[in-house]
Amino acid sequence: MKPERGTFSGVAERAAPALVVIAVLLGWELLVRWHGIAPIYLPAPSSIATYLFRMIANGSIEFNLGVTLLRIFAGFAVAAITGVTLGVLMGMSRMVARIADPWIAALYPLPKIALIPLLVIWLGTGEVYKIVISAITAFFPIVISTYAGIRQTDQGLIKAARDLGANRRQIQMKIVIPAAIPSIFAGLHLGMGVTIILVVAAEMIGSSSQSGMGFLLIQAGQVMETEKVFASLIVLAVVGALVIKLQEWIDRKVAPWTAYRDEH
Amino acid sequence: MDVTVEDVTQVWPGRRGVDVVALDRFSHRFASRRFSCLLGPSGCGKSTLVQIVGGIETASSGRVRITDPAHREMVRPLGADSVMVWQNLNLFPWRSVLDNVAFGLEMQGISKTERHERSRTLLASVGLRGFEGHLPGQLSGGMRQRVALARALILERPIMLMDEPFGALDAQTKIVMQEELLRVFDETKKTIIFVTHAIEEAILLGDEVIVMTARPGRIKEVLPVDLPRPRSLEMVNSKAFGSLFDRAFHLIREEVMTSMAQQTMALETR
Ligand SMILES: Nc1ncnc2c1ncn2[C@@H]1O[C@H](COP(=O)(O)OP(=O)(O)O)[C@@H](O)[C@H]1O
Ligand SMILES: [Mg+2]
Question: Fewer CB atoms near the end CB (10 Å): N or C, chain B?
Answer without folding.
Answer: C
